Amino acid sequence: MVREICRDEAVLSTKSQPATAADLAVAADLLETLRYHKDGCVGMAANMIGICKRIIAFEGEDGYQVMFNPVILKKSEPYETQEGCLSISGVRPVKRFGTIKVCWQNERFQERRKTFTGFTAQIIQHEIDHCEGILI
């Protein structure tokens, strides 16, 4: 189901709780909402639809992907950029990293690890910031 985008800063600044198998429907809604907004959005975190769980969805090199409980293990190649967000109006400066190594769980809650680079790495960092309650 396509959900309304949350713009409530109290919700967006709340640190998300770990996701469990009971949150699979939230992930499905998050992915459907992301696809609905594909013309202006490449990634979303669950708190952007009002649910403070550690779930992100994004469009990367390999298509759409959902991550449960993502954590950045390693980062390198810092750079400064600007980002916008569906939940918060405007564009803001932010520090990102060109290469990140991420640990997450898939939809079967099996642990995965992968190194991401470029724009995909930037998207993931933005969405993990949402999970941490960080407003850019």
Automatic annotation (TrEMBL):
This enzyme's EC code(s): 3.5.1.88
Pfam family, one: Pep_deformylase
Coiled coil: none
Keyword set, alphabetical order: Hydrolase, Iron
Entry GO MF terms: peptide deformylase activity
InterPro entries, per database record: Peptide_deformylase, Peptide_deformylase_sf
Family (UniProt): Belongs to the polypeptide deformylase family.
Name of the featured protein: Peptide deformylase
Organism expressing this protein natively: Candidatus Avoscillospira stercoripullorum
